[in-house]
């Protein structure tokens, strides 16, 4: 059942060898490479055309910024001349990936999954080229997973142990907390692992939260005598390690309008500025290092966050869209929103948390009231809704509570 099809169409094709480009690919935004960066570097510099894939489970109607990070790495590989596959997990989405989940995912129907992925290709065209001499291939894993017999699944399962599955962080934590771990969740890594076998890939790219699943594919290919590289990318998180999410209201999707993307970036914490540049833009690492030095010297992070927001939009929607989104954001959230007779409060050269700023401004009765207002989405800084209670306020800036209460903070 673990058959392996030779991809002779790419076996003798050559990819572009650019050592500087390869070095950037192996370092920028990369968390880890299995079995090692040195071996992958040797392969890439050897010039053989590799077959690489990234998979998305359509659990929602839009490709989001978390997907974009590994997709950008694959776009680099496409430009080098490698064969790139965007895999839609229309079968695995019905099972539900347990990665990084403290509870079982909601099971989706086939109809829901197909509805979710309807616009994925159009959205992915912002990152990939599906035409030309080396087009990205779009595949669906129901093509092979939907054909597996029960005997096939049993044979797949024979390559893994219960101990291996139980050692996954989220399973271990759930078991300690007395929460259920369902058998179908154990099967998810097997399904994703078989994707690598079915497509006979040389490498898989994904976020570092997918390491376990991607290594399952490496294990299966090794039973057929083939090495598979796994490249994990860094995740875009706040300083506490929390990923972007729908509940925080700051998850950028490729369906978002440019001005909406811009506003969401402006709501990110200051601690996300540098990683945002590295993972989501084409700004050079030298320039990012310069931005880091400037912020350490005391320059207002808001200036760099505005540049980040503009560059993220420009990267995904085009240069003109970035500039227009900034103009639109300023017109709506600054010019229109700020009353002329606004009260001013001096913070000196201090930096204070959003909670303390609310208390200092007397817009709330206590710190607990401040946290409650923030969690309910009733607080804005410079027109952007704030959900992070640890956010730091930098003057000059405008604090808004509700629809009518404004305070301008100055040094």
List key phrases describing it.
single chain, 411 residues, alpha/beta, Rossmann fold, Tyrosyl-Transfer RNA Synthetase, Structural Genomics Hypothetical 15.5 Kd Protein In mrcA-pckA Intergenic Region, Chain A, 3 domains, six-stranded mixed β-sheet, 13 strands, globular
Q: What is this structure, in a nutshell?
A:
With 411 residues, the chain is an alpha/beta fold. The chain has helices at 8-11, 19-27, 37-46, 65-80, 92-95, 110-116, 120-124, 142-145, 150-157, 162-166, 169-176, 183-199, 211-222, 258-266, 273-280, 285-296, 301-317, 319-335, 354-360, 367-375; strands at 30-34, 51-56, 83-88, 137-140, 203-207, 229-233, 343-346, 352-353, 379-381, 384-385, 392-393, 397-401, 405-410. A hairpin with a 3-residue loop joins β12 and β13.
Which band does the percent of strand residues land in? 5-15%
Low-confidence parts lasting 5 or more residues at pLDDT below 50? 8-12
CATH superfamily of the largest domain: HUPs
Tally the helices: what do you get?
20
CATH architecture of the largest domain: 3-Layer(aba) Sandwich
Radius of gyration: 24 Å
Average pLDDT over all residues = 87
Separation, N- and C-terminal Cα atoms:
69 Å
CATH topology of the largest domain: Rossmann fold
Strand arrangement across the biggest beta sheet: 1-6-5-2-3-4
What structural class do you assign from the helix and strand content? Answer: alpha/beta
CATH class of the largest domain: Alpha Beta
Tell me about the largest β-sheet: 6 strands, mixed
What are the SSEs and their pairings?
Layout: H1 8-11, H2 19-27, E1 30-34, H3 37-46, E2 51-56, H4 65-80, E3 83-88, H5 92-95, H6 110-116, H7 120-124, E4 137-140, H8 142-145, H9 150-157, H10 162-166, H11 169-176, H12 183-199, E5 203-207, H13 211-222, E6 229-233, H14 258-266, H15 273-280, H16 285-296, H17 301-317, H18 319-335, E7 343-346, E8 352-353, H19 354-360, H20 367-375, E9 379-381, E10 384-385, E11 392-393, E12 397-401, E13 405-410
Parallel strand pairs: 2-3, 2-5, 3-4, 5-6, 7-13
Antiparallel strand pairs: 1-6, 8-11, 9-10, 9-12, 12-13
Helix pairs in contact: 2-3, 12-13, 14-17, 14-18, 15-17, 17-18, 19-20
